Amino acid sequence: MTCWHARWTTGVPLAFEWPGGTVTQRSIEMVIGRLVTDEEFRETFLSDPHKALGDLLEQGTHLSPSEMAALIATNSALWLEVAEHIDERLQKASLKA
């Protein structure tokens, strides 16, 4: 059985720790995955990264302030470049006009 525990501050979990890493690492992987496969999320992130990440936090994604800063500091051209090389069958296209 896998054991885990949460680090808490003022009644709010900072991160859930699993052997070998924390949930925040999994959250980073999920955010990067969305940046390269979800056109609408990528467009929101590129135009307003604070809003895009804030929306994820409201939905329960766990990211530390330094992780959010690192995502924002990453050259935005990287997300566009990688997205161009992902097979279309793995892309979530935007249905916005």
Structure write-up:
With 97 residues, this protein is of the alpha+beta class. The protein has a domain at 21-87. It contains 5 helices and 3 strands; from the N terminus they run βββααααα. The chain has helices at 23-37, 39-47, 49-58, 65-73, 76-85; strands at 5-9, 12-18, 21-22. A 3-stranded antiparallel sheet has the order 1-2-3. A hairpin with a 2-residue loop joins strand 2 (12-18) and strand 3. Helix 2 (39-47) packs across helix 3. It is globular and about 30 Å long.
Write the layout of secondary structure elements.
Elements: E1 5-9, E2 12-18, E3 21-22, H1 23-37, H2 39-47, H3 49-58, H4 65-73, H5 76-85
Antiparallel strand pairs: 1-2, 2-3
Q: For the largest beta sheet, what order do the strands appear in spatially?
A: 1-2-3
Q: What does the average pLDDT come to?
A: 80
Radius of gyration: 15 Å
Q: Which regions contain 5 or more consecutive residues with pLDDT less than 50?
A: 1-20
Coarse shape = globular
Percentage of helical residues? Answer: 40-55%
SSE topology string:
EEEHHHHH
**Structural class estimated from helices and strands:** alpha+beta
Q: How far apart lie the N and C ends?
A: 48 Å
Beta-strand percent range: 5-15%
**Biggest sheet character:** 3 strands, antiparallel
Count of alpha/pi helices: 5
Tell me the number of strands: 3
